[in-house]
Amino acid sequence: MNWLNKEAFTLLDQHILWSDMIGNVLGLIALALGWRRSILSWPVQFLSGLVLFGAFYGHLTGSAGKQVVVMLVAGYGWWQWNRNKGQGKDGHITPRFATWRERAAMIGAAALGTVAVALLFKAYPSLSWDPWPDAYIFVGTIVAMYAQARGMVEFWFAWLLVDLVGVPLNFANGYAFSGFVYVIYGALVLWGMRDWWLRSRKETRPVLEGAPA
Predict the structure, then answer these.
(1) Of the segments 7-16, 19-28, 73-82, which one has the largest average pLDDT value?
(2) CB within 8 A of 43, min separation 6: which ones?
(3) Where are the beta strands (DSSP E) in the chain?
């Protein structure tokens, strides 16, 4: 798997690695499939994590470990969507807004998780190149994937919050390709957010008695 860490091409004087390109393109495809509510979103996310794990394993233990968590959550999402895909009128999952209790739980988990992971990264500097923003992006990604697995519209808001830090951070640290991909993520997030929000309203709107179906 050493070829994953070799240069694929140069973009704006930035050296783009095969791992950076393939992993991020797969992540972008997975997000687009999530917008379409396709269950294929999860195996593509799993494959993205597997590629990045192969690239990091052996020399960036922390980054490799994070991809293991991503793959586990992708497996959970696959299981959840398989179980609930028949609930929608079109055979896919039905998007919904989270309850206030679910929102509070996710915000609390994100806050505590970010602090805990950042402290772990600070205690073991070899695990991360920038502990606090790295922990924020990692935990935010897990929260977004969990919300997606549960069919919550809020998963798009979580991705948007990740993008707000991910875009400038990647450009600042020389990961130009990742930065550009995060910009495209942002556009997909806005479109996906609108689509899921409209679907959640349409598919949960009550039918008045006597009205045509």
Answers:
(1) 73-82
(2) 74, 78
(3) 7-11, 14-17
- CA pair distance 66, 52, nearest whole angstrom: 10
Cα–Cα distance between 10 and 34 in angstroms, integer? Answer: 30
pLDDT per residue as tens digits for the range 184-193: 877 778 887 8
- How far apart (Å, rounded) are the C-alpha atoms in residues 164 and 143? 15
Tokens for 3?
Answer: 């070829």
Count of beta carbons in the 10 Å neighbourhood of residue 143: 23
121-159 pLDDT tens trace: 899 887 777 889 888 988 998 999 999 899 899 988 998
Question: Two tokens at 13?
Answer: 């004087």
Backbone angles phi, psi at 98, to 5 degrees: -70, 155
pLDDT confidence of residue 111: 96
Residue with tokens 């050296």: 15
What is the token pair recorded at 95?
């998007």
70 pLDDT tier (thresholds 50, 70, 90): confident
Contact between 149 and 76 under an 8 Å Cβ cutoff? The reply is yes
Alpha helices, DSSP H only, in 57-99? 61-84
Strand-pair partners of 164? none
The token duo for 152 is 């919550």
Distance CA 19, CA 17 (A): 5
In angstroms, the CA 39 to CA 139 distance is: 23
Strands 7-11 and 14-17: antiparallel
